[in-house]
Fold:
Amino acid sequence: MEVNETMEEQKPEWAEIMKSSPFSGSHFTKEINNLVMEKAALRTKAKRISNLSIVLFSIMVIVILLVGIPSFSNRMPNDTTIAKPDAYTDQEWAVRHSYAENGSVLFTIFPEPSLEAGIRQGYMIHFTSPFTFFQDKTLTIRAVHKETGIQTILQHPTLITEPSPGYESLGRHTVFFELPLGGSWRHIIELDGVQYGDAVLTVNEPSWEVSPLFTSGIYQMRGKKLQIGFIDPGFIAGKNNKYMWHFWGPLEDIAGDFEVLAIKEGSNQVIPVYSADEIWTQTLNGADNSLPSSMSLPEPGRWRLMPYMNGKLIASIVVDVKEE
Structure:
């Protein structure tokens, strides 16, 4: 107590002066006090909103990096992929390799001798009209499966500027593709988006052996080497899982709208599995493009996955699905 009293007695004059306000009057009124409190509250609220925005933005960036933007679009494929199987009568499904009008054959399709689904094969199409009829028109070829209604593009719209090599016409137009299933396929040829004619071909059943594994980078993938494959953690009926797709080939064949259909062995029911809009080039694990996806198959058994890019089948992949 004596020390404190001594310190109080030794305080200089400026200490007493500093106790008083520097203003001549009471400037910090009640109104000013309220205003300061309101501004402080606003600053606190703004800070909270800013902090929340930063947190939400950070979460969004992490999700994009881990999952990838295309995987957000796990929508159903559009109706053009699966048509109505009963769109034609049984008579219209009769096998014929040629198309004629008014007694004149407009074209004939010559397939490989043993036409089989599940492998890449080719057709030679002989058109009879003069080349000038086709010149500067776009030629599109698509196919429809009788039993399931699946549609696939065999040739995307292609501008015709030259005759077939060694010909003065389109006498030997070739196209290469893969059909996923055996049975009757209607091949529809269009010029400038208008149907020019069609033909019906029978395709042998594909192999239902499980697709092999191959190595790319440091990963084992299931599919067709240097064409398409995915890192396969396995399938359990009714369970979603992540699958990283990998693509090889020219950019125009491996970027765009991607969708996967599936069919179980012994069934004619096709189901949509995955779809993503406008995927872009993302090289990974030695592939020219890649895409993360989430897929699920509903029942145990053997299934055929049918991945399409821009409406054209890339290749079919056979997998086993285990019981839950």
Notes: The longest helix spans residues 30-67. Residues 1-80 have pLDDT under 50 and may be disordered. Helices lie at 2-9, 13-18, 30-67, 131-134, 251-254. The chain has three domains: 30-67, 70-77+207-322, 85-203.
